[in-house]
Amino acid sequence: MIIALTGLRGSGKTKIGLALAEKLKLKFYDLDQEIEKRLKRKIKDLVTKNGWEYFRKIESEVLKKTTEKINKNKKITILSLGGGTIIEEKNAKLIRKNCFVIYLKDTPENCAKRISKEERPALTKQKTLLKEMKELYKARHKIYKKNADLILKKSSISFLA
To answer: Does residue 140 sit in helix, strand or coil?
Structure first.
């Protein structure tokens, strides 16, 4: 079984996924890290050079291969998805078929605050990170919610972080 964590950038998918895996003694995968390992490039460089459309194609391929690898092991595993992974319908179908999906719901303000010091490629044409996070939340919240088996507000799981 795969427990997949989804949510906005900065919602704590990796941090909470690692903490949960450690507490429960489970294997942990981070989809973004899997992409970087396979391509031997940082996502920022990949997106800067090839664009988001190319990245989403690679992300879908790595998601498929990663879920196949995890399913072969037949062990409960935590998988942190990228913030936009589940917005692609073919990814959402694959995720729903193979995973128990937990949506880590948090405010755009909290997410922006958490990632403000990180260098990440812009996803929108917004001029500030907060405006971008608000736009992403508005566009993605319903998709995260629709595909989730469980919705957790970030404040209710702070004991893991």
So the answer is: helix
